[in-house]
Structures are given as structure tokens and as C-alpha cells.
Amino acid sequence: DHLVVRDFHMNDFSIDGLGEFGVEGIEGVVQGQGAFELGRFALGGITFGGYDALRQIIDASMATPQPDVSDLAPRLGFVELAGLELQTPDIPRLSLERFRTDLANYVGLIPTKAAVAMTGFSLPVSAITDPTSRDMFRRLGYDRIVSSFGLDADYDPSAERITLADLHYAIEDMGSFAMSGSLTGLPLAALRDQALLESVSQQLVVEKAKFTFTDGSIVGKALDMLAGYMKAPVSMFRDQFADAMPFLLSIAVQNDPKLMAIVNQSGLFKQLTPVVRDFIANPGSSITISLAPPAPVAIEAIGFAVENTPNRVVEMLGLTITG
């Protein structure tokens, strides 16, 4: 067994804050249990509030009753990990290229701006515990799942608006999902109170939203596997399946009157069929669903419209589908 730390440092440390606390070049081995390496772990951008905050904390500690000084607690600016490698008897090799979170614009103890970036998270398919999922990935030709994730969000307390500039998740050689948008009606107090957050969730108002799905080869791999099951010629199967999509989509909505009203009576079917057909036929294609309501619409009202006036849902949301 051994543990090695090649570097330990603190930068820009003062009563006002800490620039960075970090350790680098960490290696560890536990006999019979596994080994790990971590190129870098750091946290920083921490603010302490300076002499004024220290004086207020000291005064509060001597007051009776003691006032709440939680708003004077240090604010964290960032956390970062890089170069993680992990091996255990159950996981041949898990790795993470980089993970970083940045927090800013605090209101009390709550950061109202956050960014998260993760790249190169690699997990062997053999480490997936569910046998059905593990076998499916193997049949599709995957030995490892390599993923990335990103988030960029901002909250405006005065407007009670949360803006999602970017949220994306991608799996290498498989595909990706990305979204953006904005909601209003989220009071600051709800970020501190789980019960309040749940109670206001249906009253949140959608201003705009966009969702994009991009094929990174998973569609082709799945269709090749399906062609094999059906003993169909792989070279022709993708185009044939794409050409059949309008018919398959029309059949899919027949048994659901509400879905039929949303898709057919609104004219959405005419948008949907060519986009889905191209998505299936052309490797690397994408589908984008956009919401641009003529007037901001509450989530609760969307649910009501789906149940009672499904033919108005597309118009209410300003919903479009493009490739």
C-alpha cells in the first residue's frame, strides 16, 4: 500500500480570501482493492469578507442572543479535478479527463450563476451492473462509454428568472442532447426551501426553450442490428426504414386521441415527418424542438391544455420542429 502527493500549494491567501488550494500528482494503491491517480484537485476563488466580516462575526459571538451570521460565511468560487484514473477489481479502468464547477454572484449563501464542465468521463461497459444494458451496448459495438457534460445557468432574483444558456450531455460515437431556455416565477426563497420549490414548480412560466438531439452513429448502429435480426440487407435497410417513418409515425399516434389531436390537427405532423425521415436517413443529423410561446405560459397551463384542448398545444407553445 502507498500514497504519494507530489505537490501541495495555497495561492493568494489573505483575510480577504483564498486564490487556490490545490494538490497535484496524487497516486494511491491499496493491495487487493485497487489503485488511483489524480493529476489535480483544487478549489479556490474563495472570499472571506475581509476585516469587516471578521469584526461582525466576533461581535455576533459576544451578543445575546447571537444573530444569524450565515451570510458572512466564505463563498466558494470553483472546484476542479483533472486526470483521474481509477482501477478496482470490479472496474478495469475508470477515467475522468476534467471536471470543473464555477460559482458566482452570491445572494447570501446561494450562488446565482453556475457553470459546470465535465469532459472525458470514461467507463468500461463491463462495469455496467445491469446485464440487459451491458449486453445491448456490447451488441452495438461499444467497449467503453465516454461522455461529456456542460451547464451554464444564471438566476435573476429581482425578475425571479432562471436562464439556462446551455445544458448538454454527449456520449462519444453515440449522440448528444442539448437544451437552453428561460423560466420565470421562481422566488429566491424557493432555492432555500424544498417544500416551497415543489409547490411553485407547476406555476413556473416558460418564456422560451430549445432541445436538440444529434446522432453520433447510434442510429446507424441500432438500424444495422435491427437489419441483422430481420435478415435484411444492411446497405439498403437504413433508407428503407427512413422512407417508412411517415407511415410508422401515423400508426403510432392512432391509439392516443390526445396525441393525435396535438400532432394532426395542429399541423405538426407535416413538420415532424420530413425531419424524422432525414434524421434516420442521414448519419450525423439532428432534430431541434423549439418553444417560442406568443405569450409566456405556465407549466400548469400546458398540462391543462394537453388534457382538455390538445389541438391548441402547438399554437400555445409556438412549437416548431426542424432538422
Give a description of the structure.
- The protein has 9 helices and 13 strands.
- The protein has 323 residues and is α+β, with helices and mostly antiparallel strands.
- Strands 1, 2, 3, 4, 5, 6, 7, 8, 9, 10, 11, 12 and 13 form a 13-stranded antiparallel sheet that branches.
- The longest helix is centred in the last third of the chain and has 19 residues, at 234-252.
- The radius of gyration is 26 Å and the shape is flat.
Strand content: 35-45%
Oligomeric state of the chains in view? single chain
Structural class based on helices, strands and sheet pairing: alpha+beta
Largest sheet: 13 strands, antiparallel
Q: Low-confidence runs (pLDDT<50, min 5 residues)?
A: none
Write the layout of secondary structure elements.
Blueprint: E1 2-14, E2 17-30, E3 34-47, H1 50-62, E4 78-87, E5 94-107, E6 110-124, H2 131-139, E7 144-156, E8 161-171, E9 175-184, H3 194-200, E10 205-215, H4 218-230, H5 234-252, H6 257-265, H7 268-281, E11 286-291, E12 297-298, H8 299-308, H9 313-317, E13 319-322
Antiparallel strand pairs: 1-2, 2-3, 3-4, 4-5, 5-6, 6-7, 7-8, 8-9, 9-10, 10-11, 10-12, 11-13
